[in-house]
């Protein structure tokens, strides 16, 4: 890769506040994945607010964008911020796209468009959202690697096997820094309900032994505890390391809080991580 992600990054929606990013960058986070289907241009404020962090689209939805236009925006962004931008692309969710069909063929066609654009996007400067085995294989074939989301360490280990030893593997991991278990699970379920209503995530969880009972009513305790680590900052740091131990190169931390201001928790996690 021509960008540097480091071991720890953060995940944040493109419409969320960015005024705390310098503080988070100073804590040691080296990348920010910009979520909620951003365009390339919507990543520019994140680049402007930081000095060294790599900024990645996490992810740009291929149904909503023309690959040649994306490639042109990528070229403009990398000229302005050399070595600091990673184009993450993905197929999105069937529930959110009326045209959703042939996801593998659609992703291949989008990569073809990036390759044949007047300003092509190099393979090393793009990542792909992937969960299922065939999508993971495509990520290893046509991109630097995979950005995974709402997963367990078991999925990370399987993804590493599917991708091979050299491809990028960068999972998002939502966490709750809260020592009271029931409070932490309540916060986690508020976040999990959306994803447990999306078929690509629930199908992926079922591959790893989770049942209909686990994915209903906001998620069973065992599912919540596996997908959304919680506890003290030290306990959360151990859980994040479990993804690195399972084969991840980088973890994008999404700190869930009651008030939506995660900087304190991110600083505590980084300090515990070492």
CATH architecture: Alpha-Beta Barrel
Integer-rounded radius of gyration: 18 Å
| Major sheet attributes | 11 strands, parallel
CATH topology: TIM Barrel
Total beta strand runs: 11
Oligomer: single chain
State the CATH superfamily name.
Luciferase-like domain
N- to C-terminal separation? 24 Å
Structural class: alpha/beta
Short account of what is shown:
The chain has 12 helices and 11 strands.
Structure notes:
There is one protein chain. With 274 residues, this protein is an alpha/beta fold. It is built from twelve helices and eleven strands. It has a single domain, classed as Luciferase-like domain (TIM Barrel), CATH 3.20.20.30. The protein is 44% helix and 16% strand. Strands 1, 2, 3, 4, 5, 6, 7, 8, 9, 10 and 11 form an eleven-stranded parallel beta sheet that branches. The longest helix has 15 residues, at 181-195.
């Amino acid at each position: 890769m021509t960008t540097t992600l480091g071991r720890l990054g953060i995940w944040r929606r493109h419409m969320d506040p960015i005024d705390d990013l310098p503080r988070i960058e100073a804590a040691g986070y080296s990348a920010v994945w910009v979520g909620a289907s951003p365009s390339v241009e919507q990543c520019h404020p994140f680049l402007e607010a930081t000095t060294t962090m790599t900024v990645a689209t996490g992810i740009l939805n291929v149904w909503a964008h023309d690959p040649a236009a994306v490639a042109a925006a990528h070229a403009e962004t990398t000229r302005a911020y050399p070595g600091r931008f990673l184009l993450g692309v993905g197929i999105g969710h069937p529930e959110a796209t009326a045209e959703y069909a042939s996801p593998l063929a659609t992703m291949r066609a989008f990569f073809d468009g990036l390759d044949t654009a007047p300003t092509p996007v190099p393979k090393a400067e793009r990542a792909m959202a992937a969960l299922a085995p065939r999508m993971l294989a495509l990520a290893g074939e046509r991109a630097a690697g995979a950005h995974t989301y709402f997963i367990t360490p078991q999925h990370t280990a399987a993804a590493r096997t599917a991708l091979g030893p050299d491809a990028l593997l960068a999972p998002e991991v939502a966490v709750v820094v809260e020592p009271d278990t029931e409070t932490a699970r309540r916060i986690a379920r508020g976040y999990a309900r959306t994803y447990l209503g999306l078929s690509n995530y629930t199908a992926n969880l079922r591959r790893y032994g989770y049942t209909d009972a686990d994915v209903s009513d906001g998620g069973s305790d065992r599912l919540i505890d596996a997908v959304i680590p919680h506890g003290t900052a030290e306990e959360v740091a151990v859980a994040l390391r479990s993804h690195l131990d399972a084969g991840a190169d980088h973890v994008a931390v999404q700190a869930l809080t009651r008030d939506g201001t995660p900087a304190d928790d991110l600083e505590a996690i980084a300090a515990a991580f070492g």
